[in-house]
Specification:
- The chain is an alpha/beta fold.
- The protein is built from seven helices and eight strands.
- The strands form two sheets. The chain has a six-stranded mixed sheet with strand order 4-1-5-8-6-7, with helices on both faces. A two-stranded antiparallel sheet has the order 2-3.
- Helix 2 (46-62) crosses helix 7 and helix 4 (128-143) packs across helix 7 (193-211).
- The chain is globular and about 40 Å long.
């Protein structure tokens, strides 16, 4: 059982009150239910990118006999909130939970992917299991031709204590920032079907390696 969590949602922007309400974020913090996400300079939205990549990765996993659950089933609804997304993985007793995102860094030239994990860990699943999942995703994306982020993390890895989905997870979990949507080269790849399939393959293969499948 694998849970794929495509970031954001297409209805978020039109429902600011719903997504701004505060929800538990772990480590004694709260944060907004969700956000609208970013987009390329040409207007291709992160929520659409993440939903498509998740569906593609899910198909690749299903073809290998892996049962896949998604935290959202469409790209025009609101939410779910970040704490609800974590609960989906917990309730499913998922072997792995992978959130899929893209960044919107406006620094000139900023590009590359990184994979985030909960640090310091709050439970056993957030320790070595999550770190192993993170490394498997990192290595697979690298093997699929993607570059490590040159502006965040170290060699494609980033320990974080501020991401609710990771903080609240009781299952091995990681968050993939596939790249920077504001970088022209990466935006061009994200905006094509072939590019999204390449991201999906990197994510799916990383999960399969982690599962030993």
């Amino acid at each position: 059982m694998v849970v794929l969590d495509p970031g954001h949602n297409g209805g978020n922007a039109a429902n600011p009150a719903a997504i701004k309400r505060q929800v538990p974020a772990g480590r004694g913090r709260t944060k907004p239910c969700n956000t609208t996400g970013t987009s390329t300079n040409d207007g291709y939205p992160e929520h659409e990118f993440t939903f498509d990549v998740a569906q593609r990765a899910g198909k690749l996993l299903a073809d290998k006999g892996i049962r896949v659950i998604y935290t959202r089933s469409d790209d025009d609804s609101v939410g779910p909130c970040v704490d609800q997304r974590a609960e989906i993985g917990n309730t499913a007793q998922a072997a792995a939970v992978v959130s899929i995102h893209a960044d919107g860094n406006t620094s000139p030239g900023a590009n590359g992917f990184h994979v985030a994990y909960s640090s310091p860990p709050l439970n056993d699943a957030q320790g070595e299991p999550s770190e192993q999942l993170t490394r498997s995703l990192r290595d697979s994306l690298r093997e699929n031709g993607f570059r490590y982020s040159d502006y965040l993390g170290e060699e494609g890895l980033s320990g974080r204590n501020d991401l609710a989905g990771l903080n609240l997870s009781e299952r091995p979990a990681a968050l993939v920032e596939c790249g920077n949507m504001r970088n022209a080269t990466e935006a061009a790849r994200m905006s094509t079907s072939d590019g999204r399939q390449q991201y999906a393959a990197g994510i799916a293969n990383g999960i399969l390696t982690y599962l030993g499948a």
